[in-house]
Write a structure and sequence with these properties.
By secondary structure, this protein is an alpha/beta fold. Helices cover 36% and strands 18% of the residues. The protein contains 17 helices and 20 strands. Strands 1, 2, 3, 4, 5, 8, 9 and 10 form an eight-stranded mixed sheet that branches. It has a six-stranded mixed sheet with strand order 17-16-15-18-20-19, sandwiched between helices. Strands 12-13-11-14 form a four-stranded antiparallel sheet. A hairpin with a 2-residue loop joins strand 9 and strand 10. Helix 3 crosses helix 4 and helix 12 crosses helix 14. The longest helix is centred in the middle third of the chain and has 19 residues.
Length: 529
């Protein structure tokens, strides 16, 4: 429901320039006490909606103090020159939460106590008597539009063309995405088209070509960006070049010219529009950079709700990988409806596909059962497994607080036969099988094992994912993966039948590019012998 004390739509900037400005409010940001995680999320999401995040004076994102006069001045100037203004922070119950006072002053309005907010706060805090700190959160500028969808922690708020969000990142993200879903925040009538090109080159060697390219397309508003990649796993120096414009044809023509001139050093090309693009990924391999950070996050909180929320927030994004994630999570939710948490295990050998699945499985399990159950992993070893994979299985078991069932057997079939005897309560096995894997073309998301095999329900949540989808999620969420993938292995079996993928061989003898650099997914198993 939406409630407005008065309707004062602020029209001059609304149809002006499809531009947005972000205002981060908080002394703790300026003092370096808290990391600003909201700006990059908002920049990415606003571009998907067709808004260009523009400079206001010298700033693309303003970070300001918790002072009423400063907030009022910043909001007033931004609202009169931009189509959209986003504020983050300063909505709590304490003395330094003065964002509402500042916004009210920006538009010459008084603060009023909103009866709907009072009622909701009473219900939330389970009391009929609200104290002053509670009432402070119910006072808003008179023309505020309030929308509080059922079951949500925070309301959606806007004053004219200013959209107001809390500073806590997970609440801001969920609120912003909810505003998109409900139409509370609408996209504008333009779409940014983006092409990312990875080149094996020094940036200085590209400077002249890129300058000429931007000049050639100057009248068509093509933006050309160049960013050196600091990837320690890469054998050669690499540069990411971006081509971006609201004119899709201009981007394609520029890419064609760039390809003609620099084809010898182009490693990867990806064309996407910002409406469906996933957020910008880290260019550093997760297996090295973030392993300890990520392990710490999970180990320090046995109920890490923020990580679960992040998975589900991303699954609601209007993007290719968001849709992939939603499909997988829906399959897992269906599995947990059919079977209890103790009746399902996840087949895990440390490979990239089951690593992605473990992350999703962990989130789905804990969303449903609120950290009362641990994931059960099934690790069947046969032949001669890589010691790196064996070590990674142990690390993942610890990282996600799993129960590990290890079966040393002659084959997968005999390992499942052993499982049937030792754990008769297990009825279903989640697997990281994809459509392109051997046998993947004959199964569905739910398929009984073949005749002659121990009878289990095989659950394949990522069945329709591609090779690039797997790496997109691993790198976006910075999920640690086995170190073999940074040595050129793309599909890992046993030591006697797996070698680095020849398609990733570097010009440096004996060295290979990492697995995520493989652009042709059909060559995924080229390293199997």
């Amino acid at each position: 429901r939406a409630v407005a004390a008065e309707s004062h739509e602020f029209s001059p900037a609304m149809a002006m320039n499809h531009s947005a400005v972000i205002i981060i409010i908080g002394d703790e940001i300026l003092k370096g006490l808290t990391r600003d995680e909201n700006s990059i999320f908002l920049c990415q999401e606003l571009r998907k909606l067709g808004y260009a995040v523009k400079k206001r004076r010298h700033h693309i994102v303003s970070v300001i103090e918790d002072k009423v006069n400063i907030i009022a001045k910043e909001v007033r100037q931004a609202a009169t020159t931009h189509s959209l203004v986003i504020t983050a922070g300063g909505l709590g119950p304490t003395h330094d939460d003065v964002t509402m006072e500042g916004i009210a002053k920006a538009f010459g309005e008084e603060l009023m106590t909103n009866d709907n907010l009072v009622a909701i706060l009473k219900k939330h805090y389970q009391t009929d008597t609200l104290l002053e700190p509670h009432l402070k959160m119910a006072r808003i500028p008179r023309s505020t539009v309030v929308c509080w969808p059922e079951g949500k922690t925070f309301p959606l708020l806007k004053v004219r063309n200013v959209y107001i969000y809390p500073g806590i990142p997970r609440y801001l993200k969920s609120g912003f995405l909810l505003a998109k879903e409900t139409g509370f925040l609408q996209r504008c009538d333009q779409t940014f088209h983006l092409c990312k090109v990875i080149l094996s080159a020094n940036e200085i060697d590209l400077a002249s070509s890129l300058t000429d390219l931007e000049q050639r397309f100057r009248t068509r508003k093509l933006s050309v960006g160049s960013y050196p990649l600091e990837d320690e796993s890469a054998v050669d120096r690499q540069v990411k070049v971006t081509l971006e414009s609201v004119d899709e044809k201009a981007v394609k023509e520029a890419l064609e010219l760039l390809t003609d001139e620099l084809s010898d050093c182009i490693l990867e090309t990806k064309f996407e529009n910002e409406e469906s693009a996933l957020e910008i990924q880290s260019e550093e391999p997760a297996s090295h950079v973030d392993e300890h950070l990520y392990v710490g996050h999970v180990q320090k909180c046995s109920g890490c709700q923020a990580l679960v929320d992040d998975v589900y927030i991303q699954s609601k994004c209007d993007s290719h990988i968001g849709r992939c994630m939603k499909q997988a999570l829906d399959a897992l939710d269906s599995a947990f409806t059919r079977y209890g948490p103790d009746q399902i295990c996840l087949s895990f050998n440390g490979g990239k596909d089951c690593t992605v699945l473990l992350h999703l499985y962990w989130a789905a399990l804990h969303k449903r059962w609120q950290f009362h159950h641990s994931p059960v992993l099934l690790y069947i070893t046969y032949g001669k497994p890589f010691p790196e994979m064996d070590e990674f299985v142990g690390m993942s078991t610890s990282r996600y607080a799993c129960h590990l069932i290890r079966k040393e057997s002659e084959s997968v079939r005999s390992g499942l036969s052993d499982l049937l005897v030792s754990h008769p309560h297990i009825k279903a096995i989640a697997m990281g099988t994809r459509r392109g894997d051997p046998g993947g073309d004959t199964i569905d998301h739910f398929s009984i094992t073949d005749s002659g095999w121990p009878q289990y329900m095989r659950i394949s949540p990522i069945l329709e994912w591609s090779y690039s989808d797997v790496w997109l999620m691993l790198r976006h969420f910075r999920i640690p993966y086995c170190s073999l993938y940074d040595q050129g292995y793309t599909s890992v079996g046993s030591t006697h039948n797996t070698q680095p993928n020849p398609a990733l061989r570097s010009e440096h003898q004996g060295q290979y590019h990492p697995a995520y650099m493989l652009t042709d997914g059909s060559l995924e198993r080229a390293g199997r012998v």
